[in-house]
């Protein structure tokens, strides 16, 4: 068990990109598709909550001609993905404390393989395109709780987006902490030194 801010924590859930995975090259290939939806909500739903490979999505939209450009942008992004320096140390320490770990991320299909490649030893990966919901929907946090089989009051959620990784999880009943790397924060400080 982990004692965090005087609370007993049995599981720590991390957002992926910007929290545990550093992506210094941001090409945002999905942005090329944004204008094909009537609303931002429709665009996000199509890209983040459907388990569909990008070439298939392009076929559905009759935009196959964009694949070479999008594929190049994806390859450039993915080639630079890496864990932040402290991540493995934090995960190893949590394992020693017998604390479960999970990734919960709003993510398009094209990046799922990278998350699993970089973080093969977490207890669960809840990726929005597989779950069918996106943070801050309560259903996403409910999926986390169900997958981990840990009471919500013993789950700590950490991520780099205040609305999705702090406000949403707290409203659901988790403990939560907003990670602000631009202020010099890292996961070791927020998880292990509280």
From TrEMBL:
<protein>
    <submittedName>
        <fullName>HAD family hydrolase</fullName>
    </submittedName>
</protein>
<dbReference type="Pfam" id="PF00702">
    <property type="entry name" value="Hydrolase"/>
</dbReference>
<dbReference type="InterPro" id="IPR036412">
    <property type="entry name" value="HAD-like_sf"/>
</dbReference>
<dbReference type="InterPro" id="IPR051540">
    <property type="entry name" value="S-2-haloacid_dehalogenase"/>
</dbReference>
<dbReference type="InterPro" id="IPR023214">
    <property type="entry name" value="HAD_sf"/>
</dbReference>
<dbReference type="GO" id="GO:0016787">
    <property type="term" value="F:hydrolase activity"/>
</dbReference>
<dbReference type="InterPro" id="IPR006439">
    <property type="entry name" value="HAD-SF_hydro_IA"/>
</dbReference>
<keyword id="KW-0378">Hydrolase</keyword>
């Amino acid at each position: 068990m982990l004692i965090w801010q005087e609370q007993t924590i049995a599981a720590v859930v991390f957002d992926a990109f910007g929290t545990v995975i550093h992506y210094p090259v941001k090409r945002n290939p999905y942005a090329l598709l944004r204008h094909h939806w009537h609303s931002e909500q429709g665009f996000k739903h199509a890209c983040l909550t459907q388990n569909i490979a990008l070439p298939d999505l392009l076929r559905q939209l009759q935009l196959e001609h964009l694949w070479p450009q999008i594929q190049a942008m994806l390859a450039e992004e993915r080639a630079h993905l890496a864990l932040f320096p402290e991540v493995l140390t934090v995960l190893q320490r949590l394992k020693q404390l017998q604390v479960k770990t999970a990734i919960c991320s709003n993510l398009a299909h094209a990046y799922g393989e990278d998350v699993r490649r970089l973080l093969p030893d977490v207890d669960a990966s809840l990726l929005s395109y597989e779950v069918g919901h996106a943070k801050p929907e309560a259903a996403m946090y409910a999926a986390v709780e169900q997958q981990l089989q840990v009471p919500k009051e013993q789950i700590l959620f950490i991520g780099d987006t205040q609305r999705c990784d702090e406000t949403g999880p707290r409203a659901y009943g988790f403990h939560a902490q907003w990670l602000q790397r631009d202020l010099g924060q890292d996961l070791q400080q927020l998880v292990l030194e509280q």
